[in-house]
Amino acid sequence: MKFLTLLKKELRELLSLTTILTLIGSVVLLIAIGGVMDSAVEEAASSEGEIVICNKDDGAFSDAVIESLKTAGYEVKEVELTDGDYAPQLSDLEVESVVIIPETFSSSITDVLAGKLGEDGKIAPVDVEYVSKMTSLSAMSNVDAGSQMALSAIESAVKSVVYANKNMSLAEIELIEAPVNLIETTVVGEKQAEASSMLLSSYSMMTGMIVPIVIFVLIVYSSQMIMNAVSTEKIDKTLETLLTAPVSRLSVLMAKMVAATVVSALFAVAFMVGFNNMMGGMTDMVSGEIDSAVISELGLNMTTGAYVLLGLQMFMSLLITLAVSLILGALAKDAKSSQTLMMPIMGMAMVPYMLSMFVSINDMGPAKWIMYAIPYTHTFIAQENVIFGNMPLYFGGLIYQAILLVICMTIAVRLFMSDKLFTITFNFGEKKNKYAKKKSLFSK
Amino acid sequence: MAKVLEVKELSKQYKKGVYAANKVSFDIEEGEIFALIGPNGAGKTTTIRMISTLLQATEGDAVVAGHSILTDPKGVRECITYLPDEAGAYKTMTGKQYLEFMAGIFANDKNTAKQYVQNATEMCGLGDRLSDKIGSYSRGMIRKLLLSRAVMSRPKLAILDEPTSGLDIINALEIRRMIKELAAKYGMSFLLSSHNMLEIEFVSDRVGIIAKGRLLELGRPNELKIKHNVGNLEEVFERVVKDNEISDLA
C-alpha cells in the first residue's frame, strides 16, 4: 500500500498538467508537420505529369516530339521566353522549370540524319536546354520529376527519328534502346529477391529514420525527467523527509524508477505515433515504387517479432538512462549542476545517433569497439542487426547492456542506502566560481 | 518517566580524525522538549541525522523507544518524524494532497491516514488555503504545513531541525506555542536544534550545548543560568565555549 502511495505521488509529479500538454502538443505538432510533408510529396507527384516547353524551333521535328509527348500522356504546357534572362520570366510564368527546344533543333536533326560532320570531324549532337529554379535548400522543394522525365522522353523521340531514318526495324530499335536487360538481385542477410538495391536502400533509410529519433528523444527526455525529479527532492529536502518515514529506501528508489519508466514508455509510444505520422508520406512515396512482397520477402519490413526485439533494446537503454540519471540527480547540488551532469548522457546518445545515420557502425573497423562500449549504440543499431540477421551482435549488445544495468542499479541502490546521498555533491558551477575567485585574487 | 531517546557516545567521522559529532550522549524523556543548541557547523544536524537514520554512526548508538539506530533503523522510523532545516514541500501538490500523501506513508490503513490528515488540518490552521498549490504558499505557511505533517501521527519523538529558521516573529511564536501544546497535550517528546538560543530558552525543558562536535553542557535553562551565573542562554553558551577552549589549551 505504501509503495503504491509512493508510486502514485511519483506519477503525479512526473505527469503534471504541463507535461501532459507538452506531450499532446508534441504529437499534434509532429502530425501537423507530417501533413505539410504529405502535401509537399503530393505536389511533387502531381508535377510528374506536367511538362513546360518553350519551342523556339519552326521545324517539323519539334512539333513531332511535342506530339509524341502528348501521346505518351504528358500534359504539355507551351510557353514563350523572350531572352536569356530566365529568373523574371519564370516568375512571371509561375513555373519552376522549362525545357527549351532551340531554333536549331530540327536543322540539327536533319544534319545528324545526313551524317554532316562538324568542325571537329564528328556529328554534332542535338542541343536541348533545361532551365529550373532552385527555391529552397530543402529536398522536397526542389523535386521536379516531370521535366526530368520530359528530357528523357525528348531524347527517346529524337533517337526514334534517327533510328527510323536508318531503316531499322522496330525490334532493332527496341534492342538498341535497351541493349542490356538488368536483372538486379538484392541479398539481405540470408534472403534474396529481385529488386533494385538503390530503391531498397532509400526505403530502408526512410523507415530507419524514425526509430533512432524516438530513441534519442526518449533518452534525453527520460534522463532530464528523473534527474530533475531526484535533484529537486534533494534540494528541497523532501527526500530527507521521505527517507525518515516508515518506508524502505528501496521502495522510494523503486517508486521513482517505475514511475519514470511508465512515463517514458508513454512518451515513447506517443513519439512513435507522432514520428510515424510525420514520416508516413515520405515512406509511402519510396515504398510505392517497390513491391511490398519483395520487402517482406527480404525481411526489410518490421515484423511483430522485430518490433519486440527492438522494444526490448529500447527498454534496456531506458532503464540504463534512468539508473544513471538517478545517480547523477542524487549527486547534483542544484538545478544548474544537474543540467551539467546530463551532458555525458547527451553525448553518449548523440554520438551513436549521428554515426548510425551516416555510416554502418558494424563496418567501422577497430573504432566500432569504442562505439560498442557506449551502451546506447546497441539500441541505435538494433533495427539493422535484427533486419540483417546479426543476432549474435544483437544479443551480445543486450547482454552487455544488462550487465551495465545491473552495475548502475547496484551503484544507485548503494548510493540510496548510504550516507553518500547526503554527503557527496557535484557542483561544477561552484568550482568555476572558486577558480574565478582565485584568478581575480591572482591578478591583483 | 520513561526514556524515549537514549543517545550513547554517538560519533560521526567524515574524514579521518575529523569528527562532526564526537561521543555525544544525552537522553530525552516522554513529553520532554530537548534542544541541541550551538552555532552553525557545531554538529547539531549531523547528530540529528544520525538519530533520524539518515546517516550511519561511526561509533556509539542511539535508542528510540527501544529501537537501536544500528540494528533496527526501520523500528526507529516507526517511532519518529523528522523535519529538516529549511525543508520544502512538493510545489505541484495542494496542501491537502501533500498531507494525504504523507499520511499514506505513515499510516498502515486508510482510517488511520484519514485521522492523521484531520489532525494536521486542525493543527496547521491553513483553512481553505489547503486546497491551493503549495507553490503559492509563503515560507511561514509551508513551515506550518510541514510542522503539522511532522506531528500528525503523534510520534513518540518529533525531531525538528531549526523549526523556526527564516520565519518572522509572529510565525515563529505560533510554531513555538504549537510545540509546547503538543508536548503537554499528547505527551510527545521533541528533539529540537537551533542556533537561536533565546528561542530555545522559551520553548525547551532541557538543553544540550554543542560546539565543534562535542556536547559541552547539559541541563535545564534556569539551572545552567544559575550554574554559570549569567542572565540568558547565549551568555551560558559563551561561557561554556570559552571555558572549554581554555581547558583544551591547558
Quickly name the level 1 CATH class of chain B.
Alpha Beta
Named CATH topology of chain B: Rossmann fold
List the helices and strands of chain B in order: EEEHEEHEHHHEHEHEEHH
Question: From the 3D coordinates, which CATH architecture of chain B would you assign?
Answer: 3-Layer(aba) Sandwich
Major sheet: arrangement of strands of chain A: 2-1-3-4
Bulk shape of chain B: globular
Shape of chain A: elongated
- What about the largest sheet of chain B? 6 strands, mixed
Q: In which range does the helix fraction of chain B lie? A: 40-55%
Q: Could you tell me the mean pLDDT of chain B?
A: 89
Please work out how many helical segments of chain B DSSP would assign: 9
Order of helices and strands of chain A: HHEHEHEHEHHEEHHHHHHHHHHHHHH
Structural class of chain B comes to alpha/beta
List the uncertain runs of chain B. Answer: none
- Class inferred from helices and paired strands of chain A: alpha/beta
List the main descriptive attributes of the protein structure presented here.
heterodimer, A: 444 residues, alpha/beta, D-Maltodextrin-Binding Protein, domain 2, 4-stranded mixed sheet, two-stranded antiparallel sheet, B: 250 residues, Rossmann fold, 6-stranded mixed sheet, 42% helix
Structure description:
The complex is a heterodimer of chains A (about 450) and B (about 250). Chain A is an alpha/beta fold. Chain A folds into 2 domains: about 1-30 and about 195-444, no CATH class; about 50-135 and about 140-170, D-Maltodextrin-Binding Protein, domain 2 (3-Layer(aba) Sandwich). Chain A has 21 helices and 6 strands. In chain A, the strands form 2 sheets. In chain A, strands 2-1-3-4 form a 4-stranded mixed sheet. Chain A is elongated and about 100 Å long. Chain B has one domain: P-loop containing nucleotide triphosphate hydrolases (Rossmann fold). Chain B is built from 9 helices and 10 strands. Chain B has helices at about 45-50, 75-80, 95-105, 110-125, 140-150, 170-185, 195-205, 220-230, 235-250; strands at about 5-15, 20-30, 35, 60-65, 65-70, 80-85, 155-160, 190-195, 205-210, 215-220. In chain B, strand 7 (about 155-160), helix 6 and strand 8 (about 190-195) form a beta-alpha-beta unit. The relative contact order of chain B is 0.17. The interface of A and B includes residues 5, 16 and 240 of A.
